[in-house]
Amino acid sequence: MKLLHIDSSILGANSASRQLTAEAVAEWRRQHPQAQVDYLDLAIDTPDHFGTDALGVKLGQQAEASEAQRAQNEQSERLLTQFLAADVLVIGAPLYNFGIPSQLKVWIDRLAQPGRTFSYTANGPVGLAGGKTLIVVSTRGGKYPDEGPMAPTDRLYMQQMFGFMGISDVRFVRADGLAMGGDAREAAFAQARDDIQAAVEPASVVA
Asked: How far apart are CA 132 and CA 121, in angstroms?
């Protein structure tokens, strides 16, 4: 079993999501000692912004890739290969401006490749990267409604994008209200730790 641990917070040691992803991975390894862990810090190793060169010859507009396109394609292939090799993903997704961090978004952009993680068929898109377990550690400074103009898009986006790629086993570790004072922060961590226990329980793992 291979686990890919991903952090995206820019706050370093002050990050709640980094603390909770580390706890989730540690608990997963305690419950599944055979797991091999790979780590990616998107705040440090941030992929380039996704542009035309990242598509390269995949657009079919030229026979041979330019040097810039080759460099971009190599970056995408490295990230995609790492993603496809993982059986389990633990991803820290703090809420920034009602969405996920741009560092995390550009990583996902690199993964969404037709013929690799999804395909279009006569009946619509089909995900090709199924069979994985995804644990999303979602941290928010405040508490927000689930619907309406003030509803964040972070959790829905993660579920939509990875569902689009075929991952149906998506589990959320939630910590809301982290910036709302000591009691609220303590309650948020308590809820997150309960979620971690539920997410890594051996009986809940899909074989």
From this structure: 22
